[in-house]
Amino acid sequence: MKIQFVINNQNKEFELKSETEILLDLLRRYGYVSVKEGCREGQCGACIVLVDGKAINSCLYPAFRANNKTVLTLEGLGQENGLDVIQKSFLEAGAVQCGYCTPGMILSTKALLDKNPSPTEDEIKVALEGNLCRCTGYIKILDAVKLAAKRIYKKLKV
Amino acid sequence: MNNSKIFSPKNLVETIDLLTKNKKIVPIAGGTSLLLNLPKDIKLLDLQQLKLNYIRSFNNGLKIGSMTTVSDVIDSPIVKGYYNGIIKEASRTIAATANRNLITIGGNIVGIHPWSVFPGLLMLLEGKVITAKGFVFKAEKLFSSIPKNILGKDIITEIQFPADKKNVVTYWKKFSFTVTDYPIVSIGIICEKDKEKIKKIRIVAIGLTLLPQRFVNAEKILQDNKIDEKRILSVVDNIVQEVKVSNDIRVSVEYKKEILTVLIKEFLYKLLEENK
Ligand SMILES: Cc1cc2nc3c(=O)[nH]c(=O)nc-3n(C[C@H](O)[C@H](O)[C@H](O)COP(=O)(O)OP(=O)(O)OC[C@H]3O[C@@H](n4cnc5c(N)ncnc54)[C@H](O)[C@@H]3O)c2cc1C
Ligand code: FES
Ligand code: FES
After folding, report:
1. By a Cβ cutoff of 8 Å, what residues of chain B touch chain A?
2. d(Cα B260, Cα A74) in Å, to the nearest integer?
């Protein structure tokens, strides 16, 4: 079964392994390895991607549903020589250690800041509450989101 | 898309036809429960094309389409003020943002788990569940047994909440070990007061057994009475005697009962305090 959707700004066709294949597996098979596999049951947030701008757990999302939609993975946000403002803020705030949770964290942050460029600390916590990190202790992640928000908000105001 | 295992009906007649004619066909809504335990050789009935994603006010109450996600409920300006915002508040206790962007109201009801919030909310607010075949189930009837068995070859299209009431006190509290964890117990209470007297009260809990529980006898102790310390203790005694608690690997039955009484006491002592 074939489906097509816009991934990271490019329209592409994908062949499903089975009709019930989950988006996480499909994306990783096609080389989008920033999408991480953790619990496979919606509890850790490592597999979060954006579908039509909303953060979703790709381990709970049937791939066929992505047909004709827009998907964003970390590969589409920025590359080594041109990082996105959220990626830069995570690096500068020291919010990345092993990095396993980082793609999900950054995409949850993007979904939040696209909708609400000036979130309160509580709003940040709600947006990221489904992203687990075993390394950082979360403080620096909160700092990174605030830093990114400040930069985005400033840019919007100019 | 051309395939044989996924059906995406465009209307309810087609949906019921597919459900009736295919033996191994299962509706898929958000997929968050179904995909974790997908039976083999199954055909999927995708409900996404049915335009069941809506929230409307009607007669001062609410109609919510079964494919509406929990996030849409939380973001809805109509839901915000209804019964002091209790539906929004309770919805916020469901899992995490990325889960709530997928979980639908219909899936929350039919794929019922002990932690399912919407069955509890419907019981609490005397809501109704509407099906594609045109059946209307009162919440208390639908959750007297496993909803999937009651529904048979039918799907939920809508839930309805009755007219909003002002001057009611509402309470929804989840007790869990982390914000996103499944509740050990969650409790919902609505209470209409006439000065210091309780005119009407409903108390519902989830997280204890598969189906939500309402504490009718405890409600009777409070109804048409002024609240005092003796009555509060009598309510708690009654609930501890009557409540059913299934095993939960995280905590003991006694622990759950204790938490339940703490939450109920918290609400009732606050009422008592307000009367003073
Ligand atoms: C990590 C995690 C934590 C969670 N925590 C909570 C929590 O604390 N509280 C809570 O309430 N929920 C919670 N949930 C959600 C809950 O466990 C279920 O996953 C969810 O309610 C299922 O909804 P769905 O739309 O994804 O349904 P699906 O998985 O698509 O379907 C579930 C079942 O319902 C049937 N079905 C779906 N829609 C209809 C319909 N309209 N008519 C007839 N049948 C239908 C399907 O055939 C299937 O049998 C959590 C989920 C996750 C992943
Ligand atoms: S792998 Fe999807 S939430 Fe953990
Ligand atoms: S940086 Fe290691 S899990 Fe978050």
Report:
1. 1-3, 5-6, 28, 30-32, 35-36, 38, 42, 44, 46, 48, 71, 92, 95-99, 101-102, 179-180
2. 43
CB nearest B96 (choices: A22, A62, A129): A129
Residue nearest to atom 3 of ligand 2 (CA): A42
Residue B1 has pLDDT above 80, yes or no: no
For residue A154, name the pLDDT band (cuts at 50, 70, 90).
Answer: confident
Looking at the structure, tell me whether residues B154 and B231 fall in a common domain: no
Q: What ipTM does this complex have?
A: 0.96
Which of A55, A2, A7 lies closest to A27, judged by CA? A7
Amino acid (one-letter) located at A114: D
Could you tell me the residue range of the domain that residue B66 belongs to?
Answer: 50-161
Do residue A8 and residue A71 come from a single domain? Answer: yes
Assign residue A104 the CATH number of its domain: 1.10.150.120
Residue A37 Cα distances to A24, A100, B95, B209, angstroms: 7, 9, 19, 32
pTM reported for the whole predicted model: 0.97
Range of the domain at A65: 2-76
